[in-house]
Amino acid sequence: MPLSSNFPRAAYFLGHTTSSDYLDFLYREFRAEAVELVLAHLRSRYHVKTCVFDRMLADSPSAGYLATRPGAQVTHEDAVAIDIPDSRAAFDRLLTKRFRQNVRTAINRAEKDGVELSIAINTQLSEDDIRTVRHMRRQRALSRQSQRTPSDSVRSIVRRWAVWGHHDSVISLLSLQDNWNVTVRRSDGQLIAIAAGLRDRRHDREVVRVNLVSYDESYSRYSPGIVALHAFIVEAIEDGDGPQVLDLTRGQERYKADLGGRPHSYASVSVQL
Questions:
Q1: Which pairing describes strands 205-215 and 245-250: parallel, antiparallel, or unpaired?
Q2: How many CB atoms are located within 10 Å of the residue 158 CB?
Q3: Helix (H, G, I), strand (E, B) or coil at 146
Q4: Which candidate, 273, 229, 236, places its Cα nearest to that of 255?
Q5: CATH number at residue 160
Q6: Measured between alpha carbons, how far is 232 from 237 in angstroms, rounded to an integer?
Q7: In a domain? residue 151
Q8: Do 253 and 199 have their domain in common?
Q9: How far apart are CA 89 and CA 74, in angstroms?
Q10: Which residue has the higher pLDDT, 179 or 66?
């Protein structure tokens, strides 16, 4: 169970960068006794008084159960998911004109620059690939940190770096049996972008959740992230037996709406141990 216990008297489950409802994702069915065993372990092993389950699916059994515990505190934030259409024509109608133009521009730029990029879905990732993903995420974190303004609180900055320094637990998703991924590579096989996450089944629909998106910023001119997500949805439609929902998780970035996304909710639940 990925978690960070860096902060005084509290344990934070994976969720600072992604959804955290592992009690549903990995066990497939909700069991209250499993939740209580985890909480008891945290209390005895880490001697913490509070456990924070960050960014769980708001309508999940785990979130619902935790919210009923005495003293629980619940906050919500917006997320975005895409209901994958049955046909390519229906998908094209969902896309905004801006998104279609961005994809065409990215592909044309790569061709003009002589940059050969290939997209693959659900491939086995090597140790070198995982090291590359870790490096790209660190570079992105450094880039974001350099853009922070003095108004950012010291607590907020320290908290983010504590999570990062303890364990980039999102990387562990890449080795899970139920992971999915879309990769973009150069002609020499070097990984330059990845979208990855977990498979889930909810309300009799297969769902894939984008828990990790990372790319080499030196290739941002070619928009490898959005091109890869577009390719994944097209493949799911053409396959005919692919997922019905692509959950882009938290955040209201413009590209999510441009892909035809709809809002839904994540919940963070703080429980007393």
A1: parallel
A2: 12
A3: helix
A4: 229
A5: 3.40.630.30
A6: 9
A7: yes
A8: yes
A9: 40
A10: 66
Nearest to 171 by CA among 145, 200, 196: 196
pTM exceeds 0.90, yes or no = no
What residues have CB less than 8 Å from 64, skipping those under 6 apart?
none
Cα–Cα distance for residue pair 137/154, rounded to 1 Å? 21
Contact at 8 Å (CB) between 199 and 207?
yes
Same domain, 131 and 33: no
Task: Convert the pLDDT of each residue in 98-118 to its tens digit.
Answer: 999 999 999 999 999 999 999
Domain that holds residue 195: 79-264
Distance in angstroms (rounded) separating the CA atoms of residues 199 and 243: 9
Domain tally for the chain?
Answer: 2
Burial class (CB in 10 A: 0-12, 13-18, 19+), 148: exposed
Residue at token pair 């990925």 = 2
- Reported as a pLDDT band with limits 50, 70 and 90, residue 45 is confident
Interhelix angle for 224-239 vs 97-113, to 10°?
110
Alpha carbon of 106 to those of 20, 219, 229: distances in Å?
Answer: 33, 10, 13
Tell me how many degrees the CA angle 128-211-75 measures, rounded to the nearest 5.
145
* Residues 253 and 149 reside in one and the same domain: yes
Number of Cα atoms under 13 Å in the Cβ half of residue 260: 17
What is the rounded distance in angstroms from the CA atom of residue 225 to the CA atom of residue 215?
7
